[in-house]
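Incident log, entry 3
Record: Phosphohistidine phosphatase SixA (177 residues)
Problem: checksum mismatch between cached and fresh output.
Input:
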Amino acid sequence: MILYVLRHGEAVERTDGAGDEWRYLTEQGRADVRKVVERVTKCGHKPRLILSSPLVRAVQTAEIAAQQACRKNKTIIAEPLQPDGDLEVLTRHILEQKDAKRVMVVGHEPLLGSLVASLLDSPTPVALKKGGCVALELDIDKGEATLKKAATFLWSIAPGKKVVKSRKKAFAGKGAK
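Fresh output:
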């Protein structure tokens, strides 16, 4: 399975009256996501399934990705992708999609960075920038819905940056902003 891990785009700041779950993408956030997703489609095959956090900014990001890059335009809301989601539950949920050849997950930091680090079997934390996407290849034991080995890093894209195919270069620096 190819797994695309996409962090939601830039969202409006929190306000006293509205809860975090209602924060929506800014125009810049939408533009960044469109550009990144366009580049995702040029890097390889399109996802067949998108799993999204139920929060507004993630759903909006997933909708843009589905319109531009999802072969079957199929998006499913996945509770394990909430910002306070459990990493083990999320990993199991993704591996249970074992029949899908290409899956995109859309969510939040630090959960997505923890997911990428865990799948790569990396002790070093990973941070995805807003609107950034990482592609991994997963070798799944379909009978058990478990990984046979650590994921393989394919590439990373951050808004306004070139595609990075070196794992070391992709995760160098101080984390997501």
